[in-house]
Design brief:
Elements lengths: L9 H8 L13 E2 L22 E3 L2 H9 L5 E3 L3 H8 L12 E4 L9 E2 L2 H11 L4 E4 L2 H4 L2 H8 L4 E3 L15 H11 L2 E4 L4 H8 L3 E4 L5 E2 L8 H8 L10 H12 L7 H8 L8
Parallel strand pairs: 1-2, 2-3, 4-6, 4-8, 6-7, 8-9
Antiparallel strand pairs: 5-10
């Protein structure tokens, strides 16, 4: 259906949950939300979401907001992340967690981000007291100047990989790699609220949001910018966030209560039930 359904290994995770082999992920008949979003689950210019096809979203607030903006056909299934946790309850679990994994806000293949990574690295060094792992998106990771800004402060710099596609294997283990890293660290932090923060909070990480939030070039006004995020989630910003509150918000934003059964997903996605050898 749409290429974004397969980013970060999402379709493979959902396929495995449904008992299907993942050599080639199945086509999903509809549009799958691929990251945390505080609009309606999809970008403002969502004309590529063909009318009449379902939208599989993470949380009810997105359904309600989408309905108010004229979108229809929403199905609440929660984030693919919750299906990965269901399948991998022990992956990456360590006896002792330490340090912080830090996710700077990143661009993507069609839009870059403007911001001062050197200044952000200095702020991280002043706030964090233990070892720091900085995880960059593959575009920033490929830039030696950006990597150097963090490595020169003594930070370990990693990348979970490219997000991949249906036919490439590059992104198939993206979320598995992320889960391993999050379960190894005591804290997860970023300069913006995003998927990684909620993923970390859902597996017991302490949460922090601080530093220059950086900006997309030509950032869409529909999102409302930093002011709107601060207004909606003031309690989720700062160098120290209440862990219980962060975990509660994460469960709501990731849609844990909407986890579907394998049979329900197969019906919604148009996957026939087959006995696999």
């Amino acid at each position: 259906m749409d290429e974004s359904n397969h980013w970060y290994g999402h379709s493979r995770i959902l396929g495995r949950y449904c008992g299907m082999p993942d050599e080639v992920p199945k086509r999903i008949q509809g549009f799958l939300q691929h990251g945390w979003n505080y609009l309606h689950g999809f970008p403002p210019n969502d004309h590529w979401c063909s009318p009449g096809y379902p939208r599989f979203i993470w949380s009810d607030v997105l359904r309600r907001r989408g309905w108010s903006m004229g979108r229809r056909g929403h199905y609440l299934i929660g984030a693919p992340w919750i299906y990965l946790l269901h399948q991998e309850p022990e992956l990456g679990v360590t006896p002792k967690r330490e340090g912080t994994i830090w996710y700077p806000f990143h661009g993507w293949e069609k839009h870059s981000v403007s911001g001062d990574h050197t200044r952000l690295a200095d702020e991280i060094r002043n706030v964090e007291t233990g070892p720091v792992t900085v995880c960059l998106y593959w575009l920033e990771f490929a830039n030696p100047d950006i990597r150097r800004a963090y490595e020169s402060r003594g930070f370990r710099v990693v990348c979970h990989g490219e997000r991949g596609s249906r036919w490439e294997g590059k992104g198939r283990d993206f979320l598995r790699k992320q889960l391993v890293q999050l379960r190894r660290h005591r804290r997860v932090a970023s300069n913006r609220l995003g998927s990684a923060l909620f993923y970390g909070a859902s597996v017991g990480c302490e949460v922090a949001v601080y530093g220059d939030p950086m900006q997309f070039e030509d950032e869409r006004p529909e999102y409302g910018g930093t002011a709107r995020r601060m207004r909606l989630w003031p309690e989720m910003h700062g160098t120290r966030v209440d862990p219980e509150l962060a975990a509660e918000v994460a469960r709501r934003e990731l849609g844990f209560e909407y986890q579907a059964t394998p049979e329900e997903l197969r019906r919604m996605f148009g996957w026939k039930r087959v006995r696999w050898a």
